[in-house]
Amino acid sequence: MQTNSRATRREWTALAVLMLPLLLVSMDVSVLYFAIPQITADLRPSGTQQLWIFDVYAFVLAGLLMTMGALGDRVGRRRLLLSGATAFGAASLVAAYADSAETLIAARAVLGIGGATLMPSTLALVRTMFRDAGQRAKAIGMWQGVMVAGIALGSVMSGVLVEHFWWGSLFLVNLPAMVLLLVLAPLLIPESRDPRPGRFDLLSVPLSMAAVLPLVWGLKEMPAEGIRLPYVASVAAGLLFAALFVRRQRTAASPMIPPGLFRGRGRTFGTAVSLHLVSSLAMMGSAYFTTQYLQSVLGRSALEAALWALLPSVPIGFAAPLATALVRRGLDRAHVVAVGFALSACGYGLLALTGTDSLWLVLAAAGALACGAVVIGAQLTDLALGTAPAEKAGTASSLLETGQEFGGALGMALLGSIGNAVYRDAIPASAPPEARETLGGALAAARHLPGRAADTLTATAREAFTSGMHTAALTGAVLLLMAAGVAAKALRGVAVRTAKTPDEPAESSLSGV
User: Fold this and answer.
1) Fold that domain 258-498 belongs to in CATH
2) Three-state secondary structure along 135-154?
3) Are 130 and 6 in contact (CB under 8 A)?
């Protein structure tokens, strides 16, 4: 057990070990971007199966985050981390050598279960290992940067590996990291759990999944398919189960999510989770447009687009440490978070100025958005975990990450739907039906038209898409500026817990090996 509040070399080494699963889990969100054609040729999935191969990982991950965070508080975060790493490694091996679409879908689902155990466990263990507020803020900034970088690296690694190896290699790269984690984690990472967890409320598990999964699915489908009855019904069902889930947490003797997290001092926790959701909304909403812009407007190949998309990730490594240093030197965290929102809003402002040949302007916009998101994410994560009781670190981490998933889905639904509405209005009624739906549909239709007509449709569709991006960007900028105002006011003067405070019970079951 750590005898003082300052972390030693052992804790920093343990943090590096924890970065392994975090990097792989975040990479797996985007790792299939370039592998789908090879998988389709090899396994011959149906259209529905192809969608499930791609989406089941994110859906299972989102649906189980709260359950696994609360479970880790009860059974031990390190134990859950090791269990998740074992499942993640085994599922990666099965996925790599899957001989049917059904096997690959099942393996991806188990990968989602493993990811749902790994993400809250890593963040909760950072909270319990780093008790000094300054060191914890630095560690969380590194955690945030690795997570954002992993999503960007996943698509690039997909393109490189698929070009030189078979698609199963995308999953085999997980194995060495998971083996290393299983060997080193018991030696370096202390176990921690809630000393008084209470009974695990089993009814909350299906209620939470019934709330999260329909909401995420409906919100993610709306931008591409439009606001249709099945998706609206899915969102409505998710909201209904969300209300039942909240009621259960208020009335259960031992709830999965203690309502006390959001009361008193916990109001700051709720504010941090909500603002983090808005930041995720903006980040994923912008990614919906920038990825299509690079490929379909500028005409870059998928791998070229992924490599260009790495460039805005370069300044991420400096953004979070700089923000943490400013807070440590006495600058109010509220102002730092507000500046992060303003920086992201500037990114959207740059997107609103783009034409149909504005590569560097789009990259600058993406860089500003990414830096702002990392500043916001690092500071709000540190604030949320610092104000939540240490014994509820797993639950607090899972709520932050679930909010992030919701924010991403909502960003694509809200901003994507706005952009698509502008796009459809700008496409002439005489255009082929598929051209009126999406930019990709227009480009596909143009390939079957004679030269001048094809050029006209392509140019019109690209202009329409860019106009839709402008409107969505202005909407996103307004939301971010409003969030900046809320952060500046609601977080003013808020401090986090340090090593031990009178209202934080001592952690039990903290032991090395």
Assistant:
1) Growth Hormone; Chain: A; (1.20.1250)
2) HHHHHHHHHHHHHHHHHHHH
3) no
Side chain identity, residue 476: G
Helix (H) or strand (E) holding 510: strand 508-511
Side chain identity at 19, as an amino acid letter? Answer: M
Tell me how far CA of residue 1 lies from CA of 15, 190, 479, in angstroms. 16, 7, 44
Topology of 1-184 in CATH?
A: Growth Hormone; Chain: A; (1.20.1250)
Model confidence pLDDT, tens digit, residues 202-214: 888 888 888 888 8
Q: What is the largest CA-CA distance in the chain?
A: 76
Asked whether the beta carbons of 403 and 65 are under 8 A apart, the reply is no
Question: What is the per-residue pLDDT across 459-513, written as a single tens digit (0 to 9) for each?
Answer: 888 899 999 999 999 999 999 999 999 998 888 866 665 544 333 443 333 333 3
> How far is it, in rounded angstroms, from Cα 300 to Cα 353?
20
Residues 474, 354 contacting (CB under 8 angstroms): no
Q: Which two tokens stand for residue 461?
A: 């569709």
**CA 339-340-345 angle, 5° bins:** 90
CA–CA dist 39, 105 (Å, integer): 12
Q: Which of 135, 134, 14 is nearest to 77 (CA)?
A: 14
Distances (CA, A) of 20 to 30, 171, 378, 385, 428: 16, 14, 18, 21, 50
Nearest to 127, CA basis, from 23, 15, 24 = 15
Return the SS3 of 393.
helix
